[in-house]
């Protein structure tokens, strides 16, 4: 059984899975291209499924919130 902790990735872990740099992941998040979960002022996590869906929407010309 997967836990919530297994579903949430750091920027570095997400970058490794997407084969981009962590700075790219953080830039996408700041620009609103991908969703993130802020656990505290300093801690940011990403759900891989939600990020992939958001990137697909962006590729098709839709926004994150649609």
At the fold tier of CATH, the topology name is Arc Repressor Mutant, subunit A
Low-confidence stretches: none
Cα-atom radius of gyration? 12 Å
Number of strands: 3
The secondary-structure class comes to alpha+beta
Count of all domains: 1
- What's the total helix number? 4
Question: What descriptors fit this protein?
Answer:
3-stranded antiparallel sheet; Arc Repressor Mutant, subunit A; 4 helices; single chain; globular; 66 residues; alpha+beta
Summarize the structure.
This protein is α+β, with helices and mostly antiparallel strands and 66 residues long.
Structure characterization notes:
α2 packs across α3 (22-31). The chain is an alpha+beta fold and 66 residues long. The protein has a single domain (4-59), classed as Arc Repressor Mutant, subunit A (Orthogonal Bundle), CATH 1.10.10. The protein has helices at 4-7, 11-18, 22-31, 48-59; strands at residues 8-9, 37-38, 44-47. It contains 4 helices and 3 strands. The longest helix is centred in the last third of the chain and has 12 residues, at 48-59. The protein has a 3-stranded antiparallel beta sheet with strand order 1-3-2.
Secondary-structure topology with pairs:
Elements: H1 4-7, E1 8-9, H2 11-18, H3 22-31, E2 37-38, E3 44-47, H4 48-59
Antiparallel strand pairs: 1-3, 2-3
